[in-house]
Each structure stands twice: as C-alpha cells, then as structure tokens.
Amino acid sequence: MAHIDYYFSTMSPFTYLTGMRMEAVAARHGATISYKPMDLTGGVLPRTGGVPPKERHPARLELRAQELRRLSAKHGLPMHLDPPFRAVNAAPSAYAFIAASHAGGGDLGKLVHAFTGALWRDRRDIAEDDVIADCLAEAGFDRSLAGMAMLSGAEEYVRNTEEAVAAGVFGAPFYIVDRSEKFWGQDRIEDLDLFLSGKL
User: Fold this and answer.
1) Phi first, then psi: what are they for 159, rounded to 5°?
2) What count of Cα atoms within 13 Å lies in the side-chain half-sphere of residue 47?
3) Edge to edge, what strands does the sheet with 32-37 contain?
4) Which residues fall within 8 angstroms of residue 13, CB to CB, at 6 or more apart?
5) Which residue stretches of the chain have pLDDT < 50?
6) What is the pTM of this model?
7) Strand pairing partners for 33?
8) Sign of torsion over alpha carbons 70, 75, 80, 82
9) Cα-flanking dihedrals φ and ψ of residue 93, to 5°?
10) How close are the terminal C-alpha atoms of the chain, in Å?
C-alpha cells in the first residue's frame, strides 16, 4: 500500500484549487495520507530558491493571475484573485489543523479545503478564532479546537517545515509517495494517479 506525504499551506491558492482530487486518487488506490501543514512563505520558499508573490516580477504575477482564473473555472472552484486577507498569518490555522489531526473525529482533507476556501472563496481571515472554528466544524471537528489548546501544534508546524525542506519540498501543494517519488502542484494529480496505477 502506497503512502503519500502531503505538504501544504492553508493560505496557498493552488492548494485550494486542488479541491478533494488528491484524496479521491488516494482512495482509488488504497493509499494512506499524512497531512503536513508547513510554513511556505517564511520557512520553505526562502530556503529553497523560491520568491514570495509580492517579490516576483510583474510578468510572473500577471501569468499567475490568469492561471488562477482559468483553474478556478476549470475545476468549478470560485475564488477571489485578491482576497483582503491574502497576506494572513497561516500559523493559527495550521496549529488548529494539527490539533484536529490528533483529536480525530473529522475529515482532514475537507479541513484543508475548508481553510483554503474560507480565504480564497469566502474572503475570510483564517487567523481569526471564529473562522478557524467554522472551518473545523465544516470538516466535522470540534469547534473548541480553535482555542488556546491548538498552540500545541506550533512545534509540529516547525518540524513539518524542517522536514519539508529536508525532503526537497519547495512549493505547495507537494506530494511525496513512499518518501521518494515527488509531485509538485495541483496540476500533477493526474500524474500521481498514473504513478499509483503503475503506468508512470
């Protein structure tokens, strides 16, 4: 049985545009998933040659905006290209995600989509406790995980980020099958499917 380490950021628009497609592929092949929220902009990008969007050349930003618009339409996932909380602190939602992963009782794939959707679809600040609580409830978890107890996830968030860099992760979403085969981006899920099928 294959295992997928799924590295993501709760504030990544491309993670949002993944929807639940990766989970569907994993279920089809009986693969297990470890969800690993990481600090993309402050921890992974600067250490792996990446540049945060605000520092990119206008030509790159123009293409990025066009791709987001096209992907939104392609996958039927509405999004605002310039949400008011785009530069939000992703750490609180990541801590809550980690707390939920330990508490159990809900669907972690849905929780990833709830956080990213709250930001990019609903224009909500995913650093706020009430928004975090709503996302937890949407995915079947206890709303109270949005409280101070979620700070226990801080150390794991740092570990995930260090692990991501060590594993060769440089963007989000990023999937690693059995600690060796790497797939970067929501547009590589078809390749992930083919690999798990033994066709690649």
Assistant:
1) -60, -40
2) 15
3) 32-37, 3-8, 174-177, 181-184
4) 68, 79, 116, 120
5) none
6) 0.95
7) 4
8) negative
9) -70, -35
10) 17
Q: What's the pLDDT score for residue 149?
A: 60
| Number of other residues whose CB lies within 10 A of the CB of residue 45 | 19
Asked if 197 and 22 touch (Cβ cutoff 8 Å), the reply is no
Residue 139 near residue 111 (C-beta atoms within 8 A): yes
Question: Tokens in use for 196?
Answer: 């798990």
Give the residue carrying structure tokens 């390749």. 191
Domain coordinates of the chain in residue numbers? 3-77+87-196
CA atoms of 12 and 45, how far apart (whole Å): 12
How many CA atoms does the CB half-sphere of 192 hold within 13 Å?
A: 31
Which H, E and C letters describe 53-114, residue by residue? Answer: HHHCCHHHHHHHHHHHHHHHHHHCCCCCCCCCCCCCCCHHHHHHHHHHHHHCCCCHHHHHHH
**Domain 3-77+87-196: which topology?**
Glutaredoxin (3.40.30)
- What was the pLDDT predicted at 115? 98
